[in-house]
Amino acid sequence: xxxxxxxxxxxxxxTLRVLNPVAARKFRPVAPAKRHADLSGKKIGLYWNYKxxxxxxxxxxxxxxxxxxxxxxxxxFETGPVNEAAEEWLESVRLSGVQGVVAATGD
Length: 107
Prior knowledge:
Layout: E1 43-48, H1 54-68, E2 73-77, H2 86-95, E3 100-104
Parallel strand pairs: 1-2, 1-3
């Protein structure tokens, strides 16, 4: 803080102004998808955002679901919501024909 431009209280002390460096994000909520009674024959998207071992978790999910439901198909997604590109990405997922998406996004 520049001492010449500092705002001072009546006792000669400078006032410190703290700002939040996080930008406000544009976000439009999306209603949750309806639950499927049975996943047999469904096409499921697997979304990985490059977090460590997320791909391993998704491959395991694919293996477990494939063993439980007949005729399941999968599509892999590796790119995803980044600020204003989120709506376009979600639209591309919708157009891919998947009936659900499993995402691994944790650290």
